[in-house]
Amino acid sequence: MAITVVGSVAFDTIETPAGRRERCLGGAATYFSLAASYFTDVRVIAVVGEDFGRRQEAVFQERKIDTRGIEHMAGKSFFWEGSYLENLNEAKTHITDLNVFAAFEPKIPDVYRDSEFLFLANIDPILQRRVREAMPDVKLVAGDTMNYWIKDHRPALLEILKELDILLINDTETKMIAGNNNLVQAARAVMALGPKELVVKHGEYGATLFGEEAKTFRAPAMPLEEVVDPTGAGDSFAGGFFGYLASQPEQSPAAYRRAMFYGSVMGSFACERFGTERLQKLTREEIDERFNLFRELTHLA
Amino acid sequence: MAITVVGSVAFDTIETPAGRRERCLGGAATYFSLAASYFTDVRVIAVVGEDFGRRQEAVFQERKIDTRGIEHMAGKSFFWEGSYLENLNEAKTHITDLNVFAAFEPKIPDVYRDSEFLFLANIDPILQRRVREAMPDVKLVAGDTMNYWIKDHRPALLEILKELDILLINDTETKMIAGNNNLVQAARAVMALGPKELVVKHGEYGATLFGEEAKTFRAPAMPLEEVVDPTGAGDSFAGGFFGYLASQPEQSPAAYRRAMFYGSVMGSFACERFGTERLQKLTREEIDERFNLFRELTHLA
Questions:
Q1: Within chain B, which residues score under 70 in pLDDT?
Q2: Given CB atoms, is A202 within the 8 Å cutoff of chain B?
Q3: Which chain B residues touch A290 with a CB distance below 8 Å?
Q4: Which run of H or E residues covers position B211?
Q5: CA within 20 to 30 Å of A238's CA: A72, A172, B10, B33, which one?
């Protein structure tokens, strides 16, 4: 079943201990949709500038991702520059230029309206809510957010949380929303605000699913020999997770558990090369091979 | 098969968000032996002062732990005071009084000499080596260490690492020994120094086993509703891990995996009460119940 995703499509300049790349294709919606595209049809809603050309468009096309919802505006695309020189687990932001993204008004193509799954990547919660309201018939809505919205846009964030079936955030964001330093208590408090399932991402230590449907479940991350670039790992996790769920006839507790594994799998691939390089050229066989590796890594027998 | 453990038996004053306790029974050898005692016979080598009386002795007796190797000296026992007010994952040390521990010369009772398993808890690597050499017939030797020995006693540490079958340390210690910030690369570098199996403890995120015998394996930690006191969780992990291994007829890869789970189980119990309180009063049924919970928490189906 098709997923519509709304979020950023951007250019990133990234520096890590493995090197530096100028103006890679990036953005949450990009990572999400590439990762999800290995499981199901994906449709993107975003805004880009004149610097987004055929080469960038081709990255989506090759993965058969529907880009009719990517609006082209005069000006430049969202640009981010950051580094991970001291700590691979946390980006240091040097530049954030919103550019055309500052005026983003998500427009939903009519051909997207039969999507049964909706992913609201990390954007202004007011926009997340607008998209959600414009697509009242979706079957399952998942979303992400970040510290900026949690701290300074709490009322709008609380509104969209009510609308989410699944929220995917990290440890710090969970504790920040709840104002509670114990992860289990914080998770429960966040779920009381709306999301029926909460996926807390722990970076290199995997992720935990807290839920109504599924019992608490912890998926590992891959211990990686080399983390080339962690940018987009969380969005790739979300894409693998939600993409797999959308591909299943039933979103059963067992499907949620496998989805957690596919999330970890896609997050681990994302880290192996700069930007979206690795996510562009995977095969379903490689993905399932790594899924099996994750099973071996965590299962007793 | 019996385990001999050498390490500290101490008094701890602990402050956490859950409260404060004065002079609890503590020390690495105490936590280790209590945790291991649910799986196999445990014999302790340590030194205590005149403040270690019948009440403390009884804690070991009730778990049928052999204390004939605990030497009693004039003076006070090792005393540690620390708090976890800001961060439950890292103790802030306020006081470390070595007291009688400063003159510790491990003496091995003859009745301990047929032990087939030896655990060298975190003490001076010179003493670890002396004990290891005095027990040449043990079948499996595991050990722990800490930043202090890694930084300031490297030559002695390198000597004992050569003698270890299994080393149990945390992420920071692994990276510090290897001088490498990537966990997988660091783990490999540490294993090149001697240990055939390396268990890296990730605190609230579980632990990873890197090994010759066993393939890489990641055990979760329990997401705990309330962490009352994390003191001794790592030593309790080691006790559960090594105790379970020693209880098995064969130390197969599958046994190592289950041992990782039992390590996590005992570590999680340790955090639920101050000091050794929770570890003193468990049943094997409670332990296996939690083991099964861990399996549910991590297994796909």
A1: 213-214
A2: yes
A3: none
A4: strand B207-211
A5: A72
Residue written as tokens 């449709």? A43
Work out whether the CA dihedral B275, B91, B67, B257 comes out positive or negative.
Answer: positive
Q: Which residue of A has its CA nearest to B186?
A: A225
Q: Which residues in chain A touch residue B209, judged by CB atoms under 8 angstroms apart?
A: none
As a whole number of angstroms, the distance between CA B243 and CA B221 comes to: 18
pTM score above 0.90: yes
Distance, CA of A276 to CA of A76 (rounded, Å): 20
Backbone angles phi, psi at B55, to 5 degrees: -65, -40
Exposed, middle or buried by CB within 10 Å (0-12, 13-18, 19+), for A137?
Answer: exposed
| Alpha carbon distance B301, B18 (integer Å) | 36
**DSSP H or E segment with residue B218:** strand B217-219
Q: φ and ψ at B101, to 5 degrees? A: -65, -25
- Angle, helices A54-62/A28-36, rounded to nearest 10 degrees: 30
At B159-180, the pLDDT tens digits run 999 999 999 999 999 999 999 9
Q: Is B172 on the interface with A (CB under 8 A)?
A: no
- Give this complex's ipTM: 0.89
| Bridge partner residues of A219 (DSSP) | A207
